[in-house]
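Q: I have two molecules that I believe assemble together. Could you output structure tokens for the complex as a whole instead of separate predictions?
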Amino acid sequence: MTYLSNIGLYFLMIKEMFRKPTKWSVMKGLILKDIDDLVIGSLGIVAFISFFVGGVITIQTALNITNPLIPKYLVGFATRQSVILEFAPTFTSIIMAGKVGSFITSSIGTMRVTEQIDALEVMGINSLNYLVFPKAVAMMLYPFAIAIGMFLGILGGMAACVYGGYTTLEDYITGVQMDFNGFHMTYSFLKTFVFAFILATIPSFHGFYMKGGALEVGKASTTSFVWTSVVIILINYILTDMLLG
Amino acid sequence: MIEVKGLHKSFGDAHVLKGIDAYFEKGETSLVIGQSGSGKTVFIKCLLGLFPYDKGIISYDGKIYSDLSENQKRDLRAEIGMVFQGSALFDSMTIQENVMFPLRMFTKMSKSEMEDRADVVLKRVNLDDAHNKMPSEASGGMQKRVAIARAIVNNPKYLFCDEPNSGLDPKTAIVIDNLIQEITDEYQIVTVINSHDMNSVMEIGEKIVFLQHGHKEWEGSKENIFKTDNKAVTDFVYSSELFKKVRKMYLEGTN
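A: Yes, here they are, computed for all two components at once.
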């Protein structure tokens, strides 16, 4: 029952987020700050993870191709498919649920505990529009971070392949270019946009409606990470089945 | 003037406010006092519209709050200043930005006009040189003064303060009390303070509303509170030996 009530409350929050908009001159500043905090601030970790995960996929694939009849260029093909379809959009988003999600929950939760949200509401400001809407807009740039992640994942695979001696550079590049399907990019970016919205709103929900003190802010951050990850995985399944199934 | 008639508020089975009647005049510092759990904070939050109430009427200068549209409520809230117990300053903004915040949200002033106005109110609360400090770098007393500056920067008609003295030393507490009273008088605003600090009651209580178990038990001024023989009030106000002696001296002096 609590779950159902929370799901209802979440959708009411989304509806309320679009009402009574904050002045554009103020909102502009909030969006730019959130782009810096949430997207640009995450580029380092996205780049690092993508590069090394790309490398690991390549090594694992190369080590598992033991049949001499299977061409070596399939290593590049497998890396590209894995990185573009799942590792860059989904795996990175789950990591972002920890980084960006806990930041959002703890910052909004602390504002709740210290009555800053009450202060906004007493002034007649729609606190959901003021706090959550700019984060949702800022996260619409998150696919750019994922695009960088895709590029670096494939680059990391190439580095591992060449420097680890698993296959030649030519074979790897042949594999990466083989049977490219443009719709896979559409699918990948479509779900990244959905994940971006989830990454902005579910942690905001847990921060905004939390009750209690400092300890509860910590608990809300953990709960937020768990639920954001669960929803991303579920939505990933549904979208994959709908778009590729 | 703020007028409250028959205000009721429950949380589940807990009936917190049981038909409170009160009115608060402009230019007068009114204190709502009572023990912890008496319903003071809920009362103030109902007045502010932070808690929806179950029954009763709250009117601001004749405008009944529950009859107002969402836009009218927003306009009304722009006329309200609030000083929170923990100051509730936005910790990502400097002191000057905190004070300018209501102006940025509700006026079309240019940046220099907003800075000038922030200077005026910061001077008014005796904070001339703290503009660029972050709230975390300010002391408790400074944070309270910034919160008062933010509350009055937009020339509000109504000022609410939730335990403005909590966590302050007695000297700073008196400075804050006097500042609130001076501002109330100077700007002719309706000021309602939620407090259980007896020093504040004696210092600035032009009107005192005593709540007990969700009822209005007593109403009067700081002079009346010395003379009352209402047991609930005397038990609460004169619970310390010091105040018992002060009362005795006051009564002996006036007889």
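A: One point stands out. Chain A has a mean pLDDT of 93.
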